[in-house]
## 1
Amino acid sequence: MRKLIVLLYVSMIFSTAVYAEDVEMEMDLMQNIEDVNKSLASNIALQRVDPSLEDANQLTSMFEVVEAHFIKKGDAENAVDLSKKSKQLSQDIAKLVTEKNFDTATNLATDLSRACKSCHTFYKKE
Amino acid sequence: MTSRRDFLVHTGLGLGGAALAGFVPGLTINSATAAELIDPLAPKQPHFAAKIKSVIWLHQDGAPSTIDLFDYKPELVKQAGKEVPSSFVQGIKTSTQGGVGKLWVSPDRTWKQYGESGAWFSNLLPNLAKQADNLTFIKSSITVGATHDISILKLNTGDLNPGRPSLGAWISYALGSANPDLPPYVVLYNGKSEPRAGSVNWNSGFLPAVYQGTAFRPGDSPIFYLSRPELRGAEQQRNSLDLLKQLNHAGSQRHPSDTELKARLRSYDLADRMQVSAPEAVDLSKESDATKELYGLNDSISASYGTTLLRARRLVERGVRFVQVVTGEPSGDNGDVTSWDAHDDLEKNHSVKARQVDKPIAGLLEDLKSRGLLETTLVVWTSEFSRTPWGESGSGRDHNPWGYTQWMAGGGLKPGFTYGATDALGVQVEDKEKAVDTYDLHATVLQLVGLDHLKTTFLNNGRSERPTVVYGKVIKDILA
């Protein structure tokens, strides 16, 4: 159910991104990223292929939104870079779990968490 | 002949043991529950060869100013009295209670290099300075700066909210006990009251309760009601305890998944054995006068902390895996100086606090080394955060979570080595790639006790949890 809500949320953000010029990224999205990221770490640890893949794909979609937001916002080169890096990591994780290479996927998921934390240090609102 | 009950118990344990070692991912039963069926504190194999057997976790409560102890900043001395250049506070939120004042240094501070490593120490730590070549500095520590209580919780559990297990609890869970007569995880403190924020900092969170830390009070009787009442005979007590044990264990067989009940029974059994072992472990009467002096027991300010550290060494000698020592109020009458929290009059505060810990910690390191225990023990100097280079209230310093020093000493490390750095003023970490957060420190400690933090897992409500939450990176550069 939670994943359905996240998917609907991402779809809504995409729709908004398409039809509205001035998108303000909501903090809920960052919270959702954190939640899905925790779910991903757990699913990789438990070596669950399909749920891991689902989480990784959701994260890829959400990081696309984040990247678009910071490109539009401007003067946030670091955040754009971190979004791109996070998106790439999510895609790599998706590939790795498909190959059942869970050890490497775990390491990349940890890198992804660090990238999220770095970005929050600078851009998360109090 | 194997009964049906024995078969079920042993089958469950086999699966549980495998799951504990991380070999059965996705197992739908709670792995620790299965292992609980025999002895949850039985020794368990690490993931790889351990470099150390025990950890002494020295929490410097209140957040010492490490730019006044270890992290010499000549540029800060030059710039004292001026505003902080904006480039130094870029990217950090300085909304701490004191605001950003002018850069400040104590007029009494002097600095000197020690040992072959040339590590800098201030005049506040003359004894610890002599241990320079035994220390491995992490000068790029970061954390989340919140209230002391919240950041202390993160320091010990990795989270800002209560509910996660402390590092010591994870180690107890993953490795079990090396001495059946003592808890594997002991918390020590000096002073009149328990450490601030209390037992959430040594509890077991979602792990079974048996893995939580046991707090030893200062004084001759470390645990309440451990001694037999005078009016009760030894045999009378023995018979009564044996009967109670039989009844309790009969009761617990009817509730095999109740880990709280099992933890309580285990505590009763342990308490029974600890009536002898715990007082002996903390009894310093057989320690020599020279040893007591080494730990600063002859000094009015350091006596109580020195006593605590001497007890820590005795516990490590007896196989306790994780000793969490919280720096409490110094001995004697020191006015309002209790913790390291120097928002004003830092010189007075740190002079007392440094004198409280300097000789005892140096003595601990010296003593461990002379007994051959430093090779198998990890001593960690840690704090919830540190303090700003700008002044507060004229002569104090505010909280700094953006860049500070922690250090470790002991087996498996490069001694006399420094990792990372803060910027020229000591505001924040110089190279963000080298930032060491709580999770990284925890991952490194776990690595040294032989545990892969990524594979030290526990299934909680269907989710695989680990000590480093979703973070953690072993600081490989400091490992020998």
## 2
Amino acid sequence: MPLSKTREDYVARVENLTKSFGGGSGVVVALDAVSIGIERGKFTAIMGPSGSGKSTLMHVMAGLDSPTSGQAWLGETEISHLDDMELTLLRRRRIGFVFQSYNLVPTLDVRGNIYLPFELDSRRPNEQEQQRVEQLIVSLGLANRLSHRPHELSGGQQQRVAIARALATQPDLIFADEPTGNLDSHSGREVLAILSAASLDTGQSVAMVTHDPIAASYADRVIFLADGTVVHELPRSTPKRISEQMLSLERLA
Amino acid sequence: MNASLASFRANRREHGASITVAALSSGFGVLLLQVTGMLATYINHQRLAQHDTTQAALTILAVVFLVISIYVGSIVTTNTFATVIAGRRKSIALMRLVGATSQSLRASVAGEGFVVGIIGALVGAVAGLVVSLAALAILVGTRFLPEFAYPLVNPYIFAPIVVVVLTTWAASWVGARRVLLVTPLEAVGSAGESSVRETRSRPVRNTVAIFMFVIGIGIVGLGLVLGQNSVFGLPVAFVGGLGSFVGLTLGAHLFMPSILRLVGGLFGGSAPAKLAAQNSLRYPERSTRTTIGLVIGVALVTTLTVASQTFAALIQSAQAGSPQLFPGATAILAIILPTFGGLIGFSIIIAAVGVVNNLSLSVVQRSKELGLLRALGFSTQQVRSMILIESAQMTITASVFGLLLGLFYGWAGAQSLLGSVSRRFSGVGFVPLAVPWLFIIVTLVVAVLFATVASIAPIQRAVRLSPVAALAVE
């Protein structure tokens, strides 16, 4: 897919990205020369059936995995050739994560988890950051849960803590991997509304990997992956429209 | 037995540490008895003493050393099994789901413990026999020892072998208690981190521990008072010391987590230090057992060292006035104490296996969390320091606590034995504590070195983990 916009419009993009696992006759191509961009300040959903390569794409874009060939940029930084320490710092300072299984640190309380990104960077948040995080805590309804441990919270609450953690440092881009996969529909909608509000109100760029059409309907833009390539793209759409697109992909496969 | 063998085979990778511990205990026991038998023959031939009494005295000593090692070994094995069970929760839950009773699952784990005990005990026994016979051959060959009809195999060596098998079996049974708490529902539960409260109120055990400690300390005090007038203060203080020490080890879960937290705070407020401090308290019961194993060895060796140094200092000051007193006492001390120290200190090696194993398993069991930290921007260097601090926290806590206990018990021993002697020679009933500074420094240096070495393998495993693993949903 050609990049129709200018480079500045994308917070992250990949060009000709290929990722294969294994070798010889058992080689599996997870991503096959993919080129896409994630728009700055927008909420983007990446959809596709299981095995379409959407998780692998996210891992490479987030600096968790390195591509077999091709390039990946975060802003102006080409990340496919960074070493482990540079990638670590990149993830620490410029990327936020929200996972399906929340992945909070079980030994830390809610406050410890939210402030963890600052701790990892061996620094205290400045006054402005502190204020913003405290506001975030209030707006996510976590104010009276700060001294609780993750196991004392419901799934929805845990996921809100994870979102607060991801938003705390105002990263360039937040990757959300099936953030509603473990939640009931009410908590799931809550989480999606929070992510969509973050991009709308503060211009936070969010990329969400999902196979749930309802989740994807919250996004400004939906990219469809199948068999390691980008096969389609939709602007903000209804769940019905997205489902139809997904079904047509399944029929092709 | 066949079922036990099968499940042992399926899980043999998890049992390396327990086999090592059983082998160390059994090998140590066999070697001790072998040497005892050979020594008794030697002493008998030299007509140094009555054969039967010598044999009996040596055997009693050997049994004391062996009991200490096996006790520490049991703590380590119990802990290993408890940790292994924690790692198997999912599969245990699945077995419960399809209809296995928790009792039968626990018995099956204990069956693995039985096999572990047999393998470890036999390996250790063979090693102990080989070493003792080789040493004898060398000592006789080099004419260091005269050629007597030494017994090649002490008939009593079956005793430590059987005891090690049985204690390993029992330890695995105790360690497998947690199987009973696994619910079938966990097999279908969410992939989220399940947090388990490990510490439960154990009123009976706590009461016994506190009772033994308080009464024991009281009896030590009585021994100190009696020691003002006769040397029989020592046996009284010894009984009190033993009671209070056993009370301490039984009730360690009541205070050890707090001490670990205190020591953990000393490593600063960086993210790795904070997380490390939290990690060692994640499973307070396990950390307590790991630490107390080391404490026992360090405390006993320190007790011996302090007592002998205090004793030697007093003799020296007495001899300064009248040189004809206590002929040869210091020379005898100089030979006997290092030997005893080494034999008691053997339990430290067993406890060290426990520390290494605890660290390794804790890294394996939280690989998901380590991957998450890496994803969030924890550098490999930060992972390294976190695990090193966890190791140091346990080792340093154990050493310092053991040293402090040893200083008290050692002084109490010397005071109760020599209070009356001191009063006779210097007019003062108080025996000043001789602090063995060199010993303390060496112990702390070894502790720091050991903490570093013990963390090497776990660190390697941890930094090799891919952060992508954190994203994989179970």
